[in-house]
Design goal:
The complex is a heterodimer. Chain A is α+β, with helices and mostly antiparallel strands. Chain A is 28% helix and 23% strand. Chain A has 3 domains: 158 residues, FAD/NAD(P)-binding domain, CATH 3.50.50.60; 157 residues, 2-Layer Sandwich (D-Amino Acid Oxidase, Chain A, domain 2), CATH 3.30.9; 61 residues, no CATH class. In chain A, α1 runs parallel beside α5. Chain B is α/β, with parallel strands linked by helices. The relative contact order of chain B is 0.13. The chains are: A alpha+beta, B alpha/beta.
């Protein structure tokens, strides 16, 4: 490190959170509300760009989590906090419930154990129902469904607006964010860390490693050792046409296997119907590619469960990577002599667990001897409303131009997302903040207009003016 | 504020492209009082607005025009005849009795019309619905998006794309690229030969674009932007082609969002609403016309259909269309892809479509049969290609069918 080290910020922060995924955003909020000075560092130009960019958008009850696990505790605490702050932050919730459906006599035999485990986990409102009752509630479900465990507490939420507003609340109450800042090194001097990024260094007394898919690598790089190894688990999804969402009310879960929760059929709060995820272990931490054969398999599986889907077009396909480790449970561990807490292995319940994880980690931080006084009356920003049932911007007075016709995204919403306080710096970021191009036509009609509106805002521009730049 | 609600609307037309404008103009010519076109884009004219090249307008204006000039003429002609064109208006919901929920610059509004014509056109199938393998890198777009970027916004997304497909629109993509100083690396067609008819097939060679037929796109690579694509030829040899973008051409699908999410019957085969020979939907207050009916015909063809539908709706408003009482359903089996209209009302009335339109999904030679129960009511030798439509006179069906279903099949 040279003596003329450039700093991103003068101050020595109480904590630096590395990684602005769902967990990092919830962490920034919790620590800021508790009175800590927080810096959030993210290598991508937009937040939620790793594991958090693709999931099934379900707020789980923890009914099927390993009993006694940290995961169960965090999911249930997270679920409870989500419901508590839902109104003040304007968070979306579609309490549609779920059915764990048995499709074979063998699976039928497992329902009792699933029901018993739910009760053991404190989820006491589950019920085993026969095929007749299941088909009464979900008349479009295929005939060969034999029965189900009904889990009324499972809900749909907006997987992006929620973490955005967690982080916005942190920012409004004093947190600083440093995007496009990949951590390339760091040193601990016994009392505080100096973290290096290509754009400058940052000082913080404690580090919270929320680096998701890179969590083990960050521990290795800065602590010299990691207690777990991440093997990314890819999950592919297929989204059907919005007209399909009328075919289903509740989430349809399969009877799980040892390794995965299996393929889920679910509506989204945006008004789609989707199927996924697959569970494919891989080495690459960035390759969220889809493949045709797997997608076709998912579509076939969805058709089998919900035959009326056969005539429904496909709107979107996507894949996400979950930071799975060799362990089943979350890997959250403090390294007190280094002022470091690793928050790793949050493999598939991060969205549900994030708020609970943040509380748990703050507890660990306090045990390390840190004290702050909580902010007395924190400001509470409102989440962007992108859910189909919510008061979307186009339904308001004088919304102006609608840019994305499929998802009814206004120019006003796009311009808001491009400016403060967490500006979209890529099309992916803009999509998560506004839903532009995420509908049926996938940008056929609005890409050109977006290229114009986003000019000067994206790290990689969508287009360049003809007659400028390199000629071919 | 748009003054849409100021008085009773006789006909509302959803979509201001060639078909919608033609229908609207024809309705005014027939003396219908209030005809409004609802267009969600800032300007009416439809897809030709961003096709900055000829040939458009031969059928309509007896001359060869570029797309934007053609679109502007259609708009002027409609306005000249007293059509009200409302731009920046998105129809969000279409309900029974012609009630439309619309989103405007000023807010949401409910309007109603005695008749509604859907003329929402087509779009190309995006990457997702094609299930293309690979990463979701920046730079994979449809021809329509590319053309509007280049011709409407004077911007280009990349320099050296590959072009996927060889329908007519793919040749339009080459012209568009050349206009913007982009140099397509290759045109990739899965089938053994180019889909568009000769002489378009000569065009890539003339412009120095490598043409790879019998070649399949297998994967898109890149991290943030596209770096290369993998392809495989007919005998399975893989090859990587360096490029910085992918243009997905054609595989048109009707933009039938509203019909799908509303109360109208949609035909999975065409992707458009189910109509009878007057373009009447399952709710007879609603009509459909142009490329929404089925993918995909030229602007001129759609314009002609629009005119015809305009005449039908005028006749309907005058009480001159027969009620859809006895109806024959038409169905097809592979390799026939679709038949449109999908229903024939067993009655005569003015302005009906003269022909059924059918298409096949692969080249086929044999005998086309139409069955009504046990009886074969029509038999005809055919030699068909996917890019060529087959026309069967509606009168032939009317003369022979008595009800129920008529099934079309081809024996090879």
């Amino acid at each position: 490190m040279s003596k003329t080290q450039k700093f991103l910020h003068e101050e020595t922060f109480d904590v630096a959170i590395i990684g602005a995924g769902i967990v990092g955003c919830a962490m920034a909020r919790r620590f800021t509300l508790e009175g800590a000075r927080v810096a959030l560092i993210e290598k991508a130009p937009d937040i939620l760009d790793g594991a958090s960019k693709a999931n099934s958008a379900i707020l789980h009850t923890g009914f099927d989590a390993p009993s006694g696990s940290l995961e169960l505790q965090c999911v249930q605490d997270g679920h409870a906090e989500y419901l508590n702050i839902r109104e003040s932050l304007g968070l979306m919730l579609d309490p549609c419930g779920a059915y764990v459906v048995a499709w074979t006599p063998e699976e039928m035999g497992n329902l009792e154990a699933i029901h018993a485990k739910a009760h053991e986990n404190g989820v006491t409102d589950t019920k085993i129902i026969p095929a007749t009752a299941l088909h009464q509630s979900e008349p479009n479900l295929a005939d060969h469904a034999l029965g189900a465990v009904h889990v009324p507490g499972e809900s749909l939420i907006d997987p992006w607006s929620a973490p955005y507003v967690y982080l916005r609340q942190a920012i409004e109450n004093g947190a600083e964010t440093f995007l496009s800042s990949e951590v390339t090194g760091g040193a601990f001097d016994g009392t505080s860390w100096q973290i290096t990024t290509p754009s400058g260094a940052l000082k913080a007394r404690t580090i919270l490693n929320c680096a998701g898919l890179y969590g083990d690598l960050l521990d290795q790089a800065l602590l010299g050792t990691a207690k777990f190894n991440i093997t990314p688990r890819k999950g592919q999804f297929v989204v059907f046409d919005k007209a399909a969402s009328g075919l289903l009310d509740a989430v349809i879960l399969p009877v799980p296997t040892e390794r995965t929760k299996g393929i889920v059929l679910f509506r989204t709060v945006f008004g789609n119907l989707a199927v996924g995820p697959t569970a494919e272990d891989q080495q690459s931490r960035s390759d969220a590619s889809t493949d045709k054969a797997t997608l076709e398999g998912l579509i076939k599986a969805a058709h089998k469960m919900l035959p009326a889907l056969r005539t429904m077009p496909i709107t979107a396909t996507y894949a996400g990577l979950r930071p799975a480790t060799e362990f089943k449970d979350y890997q959250i561990s403090p390294t007190p002599d280094k002022n470091w807490i690793t928050v790793g292995g949050i493999r598939s319940t991060g969205l549900s667990g994030a708020l609970g994880i943040a509380r748990h980690v703050f507890g660990l931080y306090q045990k390390m001897g840190h004290e702050h006084s909580a902010i007395k009356s924190p400001t509470t920003p409102k989440a962007t409303v992108l859910a189909q049932t919510g008061p979307r911007d186009w339904t308001q007075d004088t919304p102006g131009e609608i840019v994305c016709h499929c998802e009814l995204v206004t120019r006003r919403e796009i311009e808001a997302a491009l400016t403060a306080p967490l500006p979209a710096r890529s099309l992916a970021g803009l999509k998560r903040q506004t839903r532009a191009t995420m509908g049926r036509c996938q940008g056929f009609f609005c890409t050109a207009r977006l290229a114009e509106l986003t000019e000067g805002h994206f790290v990689l521009p969508m287009a360049q003016e003809i007659g400028t730049g390199d000629q071919p | 504020m748009t003054d849409l609600a100021r008085s009773r609307i006789d006909v509302a037309i959803i979509g201001g492209g060639p078909a919608g404008l033609a229908a609207a103009t024809r309705l005014k010519q027939a003396g219908i009082r209030r005809v409004v076109v609802l267009e969600r884009e800032p300007e009416a004219g439809g897809i030709p607005r961003h096709c900055g090249h000829p040939p458009f307008g031969l059928r309509e204006f007896k001359r060869i025009l570029k797309g934007p000039a053609y679109a502007a003429r259609l708009v002027r002609r409609a306005q000249h005849h007293g059509v009200e064109i409302h731009t920046g208006v998105t129809v969000v919901e279409a309900r029974p009795h012609g009630v439309l929920l619309i989103a405007t610059q000023d807010g949401v509004q409910e309007i109603s019309a005695a008749r509604v014509i859907y003329a929402t056109g087509v779009r190309e199938t995006p990457r997702s619905a094609r299930l293309i393998s690979g990463v979701r890198a920046r730079g994979v777009i449809n021809t329509g998006a590319l053309q509007s970027m280049i011709y409407l916004k004077n911007r280009r997304p990349y320099q050296r794309p590959v072009i996927i497909g060889s329908e007519l629109v793919a040749f339009s993509a080459i012209m568009t690229c050349r206009h913007a100083g982009m140099k397509p690396v290759a045109m990739i067609e899965e089938r053994a030969r180019v889909t568009a008819r000769w002489p378009s097939a000569l065009f890539p060679r003339m412009t120095g674009v490598k043409l790879l037929t019998g070649t399949k796109l297998t994967e898109i690579h890149g991290q943030n932007s596209v770096t290369h694509v993998s392809v495989q030829n007919a005998i399975g040899t893989p090859e990587d082609i360096a490029c910085d973008g992918v243009i997905l051409c054609g595989q048109f699908t009707p933009e039938s969002t509203l019909a799908r999410s509303g109360h109208l019957a949609v035909d999975p085969a065409t992707g458009g609403p189910v109509v009878d020979q007057w373009g009447r939907c399952s709710d007879p207050v609603y009509f459909a016309t142009g490329n929404l009916l089925r993918p995909v015909e030229t602007a001129g063809w759609s314009w002609n259909e629009g005119r015809q539908t305009g005449a039908c709706v005028a006749a309907d408003l005058a009480g001159n269309l027969p009620d859809p009482e006895t109806v024959v359903s038409l169905t097809v089996t592979a390799p026939l892809k679709y038949v449109m209209p999908q229903r024939i009302t067993l009655a005569n009335g003015e302005g009906s479509m003269k022909n059924l339109q059918l298409r096949v999904s692969r080249p086929v030679r044999g005998t086309l049969l139409a069955r009504s129960g046990e009886a074969i009511i029509m038999r005809r030798k055919v030699n068909l290609l996917p890019e060529r439509r087959l026309l069967i006179p509606v009168a032939d069906i009317l003369a022979q069918a008595t009800g129920g279903t008529v099934e079309f099949e081809i024996t090879e």
